Amino acid sequence: MDTALSDPQNGSAEAASPANVTARPPSTPEGIALAYGSLLLMALLPIFFGALRSVRCARGKIFSQEYINLLLSMYFFVLGILALSHTISPFMSKFFPANFPNRQYQLLFTQGSGENKEEIINYEFDTKDLVCLGLSSIVGVWYLLRKHWIANNLFGLAFSLNGVELLHLNNVSTGCILLGGLFIYDVFWVFGTNVMVTVARSFEAPIKLVFPQDLLEKGLEADNFAMLGLGDIVIPGIFIALLLRFDISLKKNTHTYFYTSFAAYIFGLGLTIFIMHIFKHAQPALLYLVPACIGFPVLVALAKGEVTEMFSYEESNPKDPAAVTESKEGTETSASKGLEKKEK
Fold this sequence. Notes:
By secondary structure, this protein is mainly α. It has helices at 29-56, 65-92, 127-146, 149-166, 172-192, 195-202, 215-218, 231-250, 256-279, 286-304, 307-312, 321-343, and strands spanning 104-111, 118-126, 208-212, 225-229. It has one domain (8-96, 103-109, 117-334). The strands form 2 sheets. It has a two-stranded antiparallel sheet with strand order 1-2. Strands 3-4 form a two-stranded antiparallel ribbon. Helix 4 (149-166) runs parallel beside helix 8.
C-alpha cells in the first residue's frame, strides 16, 4: 500500500485521536534531522538487500475503525511473523554453532490418492527456521500488545525487503509503465484528496515506516512521528532490483545501472524530504522518485549506447514450461554429445 511521506508538524500526519487536538511543542532541528535521516536509511536497506536477494531466487459502514484496526493487527501479526522470519533466517544461520542439532522437517499436504494424488503444500524447513520463527513471534506479540514504533518498523522493513526480493518485473518497459501509472496515482491521491494521508494516520498497521522527531527529548516513548509509506520503498525497489539483474545479464562485472538507480532513489527521497520540510505539507514521494529512478539509468544508457539492450532485456521465468523444456532439451543434447564422444 502506498502512502505519502508526511511531516507531523503541520498537522497532516498526526494521529486522529483526541489527544492530538492540543498543540505539541516543536521538535528540535537535531530531532527532525535524526528522524528524516533514519527514514532515509530504513528505506535504503530493504531496497539494497532485497535487490541482491532477488537475483537468487476507507472506513467501513458496518465495522468501526477499532474493529478494522483489530482485524488488520491480526492479519499483519501473522504475515509480519512469517515475513520477519524469512528475512532474518539467512543472517541468523551464521550465528548458530557448528554442533547445533539442526533437524530437517517437511510439511506435506496432498489431495487425492494413487495416480490422482496432487501436492497442495510441500514446505521444507529445519530447526534453525523454527528458532527464527520463535524470535519473530516475540516481535509479533510485542507489536500486537504495544503497537510500538520499533516493532512496526521491524515488520515494515521485513515486508519491504520481501517485496523487493520476491516481486519481479520481467522487463524495463513494464517497469516504466508501472512506475508511470503509480506516479499519476500517487500525485492525485495526495494532492487531489486527503485519502492517502488519512489512511496512513488512521489505521494501526505496519503499512509505513515511522520515526519519532522527538526521540532525543522523550526517548523510546516518543510519539511525534514522521512517516514513509511502504509503497514508496517497494515500487521503486522492484525496478531497481530489475536493473541489478540487467547489469548481471550484461556479464561486464559491473553494476552501473543498479548503483545509478540506487543513487537516484537517494536523490529522489532526499528531495521529497526537503520539499516537504520547506512547504510543511505531505508529499507524494513517487512524484520525485519515479523521474529520478527512470531518468538517471536511461541517461546512463544513452551515454553508453545501451538503450536498445536495456529495453530489449527480458527476464525469463524459470517456472515457464517452455523455458523448462528448452533447458531439458539442452541437457539431453549435451548428454548425447558426451555419449558420442565416449563411443568414439
